[in-house]
Amino acid sequence: MDFVKVERGDDGVTVLTVDRQDKLNSLNPQVVEEIGQALLELQEEPPRVIIVTGAGERAFVAGADIAVMNEMSPIEAKRFAELGHAATALLDRSPVPTIAAINGFALGGGCELALACDIRIAAENALLGFPEVTLGILPGLGGTQRLPRLVGPGIAKEMIFSGRRLKAEEARMVNLVNRVVPEGEALNAARELAGEIAANGPVAVRHAKAAANKSQDVDLVSGLEYEADQFALLFATEDAREGMGAFVEKRKADFKGR
Ligand code: COA
Predict the structure, then answer these.
(1) Is 57 a residue of the active site?
(2) Most buried residue among 138, 145, 250, 255 by CB atoms closer than 10 A?
């Protein structure tokens, strides 16, 4: 792959880096395809946590590649949106938790990539927003659908209609990012959190993610039914016996992921 690097750690944490620094890691169709391909390959032997970040100190991802979009026909634009939807679906439907380490500009498609992650950590120099309408287009890689679900329709519409960029701290105040860390620290902070998650029962974490995702798709009664089923299923795992047994025996649990 030319623009995506995948680094698998022994601790179960994998870092996927979008690396196209001369164009601030912006997304052309090849970059989006490579993100999708990398995520598909990770599904074969899933790590415990996936971190997504951008190479360099300036940008997470500064959006879809405007120069390439400028040449697209409507059919090509549809295909590009579908590519983006496929790649971002692989993130938010990934069985394992995903964390966006936002180290700089996260604009348009970059913000959409971050929105598809479960958790967002931003460096204090990060700027987040949806400038698409300033270009005469709209967020087409999931932004109009995921942003209102995350921050509510009022804030989402203000951001999308105005194209205004939010500083990291403003983004935290509207729940667009979970937390803000000093400049240069987004990846370290994401790694630290990923380490905490990776130390927990991996099957439990996967099922917890599936249940939390379900809350976005179904009514409360159906969601609670799903939760009860997932809860019950975990009682058939070795990890649940190990985790609860370790508590009772006052020792540290040794999870095997079974
Ligand atoms: N698409 C294509 N190229 C992009 C890009 C994008 N989304 N974002 C940055 N680049 C390119 C620039 O064209 C420039 O390339 P060049 O050196 O060949 O001219 C390079 O990345 C560096 O960007 P530059 O604009 O010189 O940096 P800056 O610090 O002055 O400004 C931004 C940074 C992010 C404010 C500015 O690049 C920008 O507004 N980018 C577009 C953001 C956007 O609208 N994204 C949503 C698209 S839907």
Answers:
(1) no
(2) 255
Q: What is the number of residues in the chain? A: 258
| Residue nearest atom 2 in ligand 1 by C-alpha distance | 65
Residue pLDDT, tens place only, 151-186:
999 999 999 999 999 999 999 999 999 999 999 999
Amino acid at 31: V
Q: Pick from 20, 21, 24 the residue to mutate for probing ligand 1's pocket: most ligand atoms within 8 Å of its CB.
A: 24
CA of 116 from ligand 1 middle (Å) equals 22
User: What are the structure tokens assigned to 217, written together?
Assistant: 């798709």
109 token code pair: 């498609």
Residues 217-242: b if buried by 16+ CB within 10 A, e if exposed: eeeeeebeebbeebeeebeebebbeb
Considering the four listed CATH numbers 1.10.287.3610, 3.90.226.10, 3.40.50.720, 3.40.640.10, the one that applies to the domain covering 4-198 is 3.90.226.10
**Is residue 132 annotated as a catalytic residue, yes or no?**
yes
Mean predicted confidence (pLDDT) in 197-222 = 96
Helix axes 74-92, 29-44, angle to 10 degrees: 30
Q: Write a three-state SS string for 172-203.
A: HHCCCCCEEECCCCHHHHHHHHHHHHHCCCHH
Token representation of residue 121? 């950590």
